[in-house]
Amino acid sequence: MLRFALGLNAGDQQQGSAGIRPLIAGNWKMNGISASLANVREIGMKTEPIADAVDVIVFPPATLLESAAAVGLPYRIAIGGQDCSSETDGAFTGELSAEMLSDAGATFALLGHSERRRRHCETDENIRQKAIRAIDANLKAVICVGESLDEKAAGDTLTVLSKQILHAVPRTVNSSDLVIAYEPVWAIGTGRRPEDQEISEAHAHIRGQMEAVWGEGGRQIPILYGGSVDSKNAKTILRLPNVNGLLIGAASLDAAHFSAICSDAAGLASANLSI
Ligand code: 13P
Fold it and tell me: I want to staple 98 with a disulfide (CB 3.0 to 4.6 A). Which of 137, 189, 198, 237 is the partner?
């Protein structure tokens, strides 16, 4: 599979994430029934020509994991679970183990999304345990971090990110099994997002934390931005240093919009390749 010599942003060569393939992920949240598999197929048909240039992941609801994985496979669309249990098996009604996700065809697990942190009282420690389970089951762990509006207003964004990373990201795993998603809680589903400079600062901070633990490996961990991304603002965000991809909610439910964002990412990566 083609690997890019450069990252999305030429500036990343100096800033620590050169060579990372853009990763565009759609989090469907609690949306999607079997008819929605047509969306996976449409995304697949639209992104097939750029499959060498961008990694595409869909996180459907758990009920669609197996069928979405089958539909996505020929198009190289990866499928992920939106959560996994911190336990391996046993009397945990309603929970899904990482092994079950993997068995259903998932290759990623999305962990610590703010909606789960809030509604299910997930702590950083729970999330770290889930990440270990996920990686043990051969899934890549996409770990979400991000500040609330109050934390942002107090000027605590970077401190919050440091604390979440310290406690939620396991340090004993290989860096190649990790993806970090920076999702400011207040930007999710609101149509608001941080200033470009604020996104750059947050991503540079996360990159520094990854490098501090994994050294060179930390430079290769994809750092995604998520929160009110759409087909209008995606390109601008993707150009920011240390932004290696996007985690998209609402706009990922529309196959045309989502595919257009994937094409933007591929276009930017190819442009950097030819510099
Ligand atoms: P929106 O793109 O709808 O703001 O959601 C972002 C998100 O939560 C992705 O995980």
Answer: 137
